[in-house]
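User: My notes are a mess, but here's the protein and pyridoxal-5'-phosphate's SMILES. Can you give me a structure?
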Amino acid sequence: MKETATDFQKTKELNDKYVLDLVNRYPIAFRYGVNELLFDQNNKQYIDFLSGVAVTNLGHSDPDIIEAIRLQIDKLMHTSNWFYSEEATKLAEILIQNSFPGKVFLCNSGTEATEAAFKLVRAYAEQKHIADPIIISLQKSFHGRSVSGISLTGQKKMHTGFGRLLDGIEFVNPNSEDELVAAFERYAGRVVAFIAEPILGESGIIPLTHGYLNLARELTAENEALLVLDEIQTGFGRTGTLFAFETLGFSPDVMTLAKGLGSGFPIGAMIVAEKYESVLAKGTHGTTFGGNHLGAMIAYETIRIIQTRDILSNVNSCSDIAFSRLRQLQQNLKIIKEVRGKGLHIGIEVSVPARPIAEKCLEKGLIVNATGDTVIRIMPPLTISSKYLNDGLDILEGVLSEFQREQK
Ligand SMILES: Cc1ncc(COP(=O)(O)O)c(C=O)c1O
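Assistant: No problem, the inputs look usable. Here's the predicted complex:
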């Protein structure tokens, strides 16, 4: 059924009347999607360079995901994690087989994975009898919206308005090796964890260097502190490998996951390395929905598809196309200050506010995200075709050229 602009007006009116006003929404409501394309209530087509913020990595309406959902809802959606579950067990097994030896806790979102990691780190500090433990986190990081999430997040704008945050968290600048060494020295004997995203996503795609992460690994090992990698955004193929840490030559002690894990179904996970798998004792943490049969089945199928369809080679070939076109564009347009990232996790730093650029792209049928005030973030589905990747880049190029002309 074809809907009209009035349908959107009605949706907007109901939203404004009944939904808490917490987000600066774009004036569109999508009705359906097919792989890299989304269609709004007027059937206008958009190329999706956002993937629901790095969530629908396999695109929209993947037939195998739909089939897995159908089969599973016919059988069972939810019981309780008080019972064993074939689906949750299979998911835990495939996660460990493809990351590092250890054990998995399943939850429902990235924030809950962060919370689990935070509790694990606090429990570790108690077990080591450290009275004033310190967690080192990064300025500009993002780890979620709960109180532990915002406490670990290195962005002042998220810290205010909620009273006292959790203490014992110190922030250092990303990629400053001197600051990291100094923090470990200043809090010698007290540092229990270092937490970081391998590429800082929300504040504008800031990749941590290999050298910096190596140093973090060395310092955490020397100080018996946990290296916690937040791969909630970088995980599941976004950067060209299943997990971003794989290219580093070492693994973290704790890894948090969500977003792309569920292909759109809300699910999160924390993986804990063997050495620390007893830190959280029985009964000290839990969840009602985490690891339910349906979510676990979808996540298992998501990983299986990434592997069997060789999605990563598509990520790498599309990444080459995107980076070479964007770097070429940078030569021609002064408003582009930098193009950075890895795989299909790409940031374009511009010298003007990014939001109007994202809005103009949307008018022209391309969904991109403005983040960190002056960064256009590109995260298309990992299954995007080179045709739609190039079509989307054409739109972006046109819009950036318009904004460049306005600067003169
Ligand atoms: C790196 C990172 N950590 C944590 C989160 C929080 O995840 P969620 O929104 O699923 O709670 C996000 C979400 O954007 C994220 O990008």
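The domain at 76-308 is CATH 3.40.640.10 (Aspartate Aminotransferase; domain 2).
User: Great, I'll file this with my notes.
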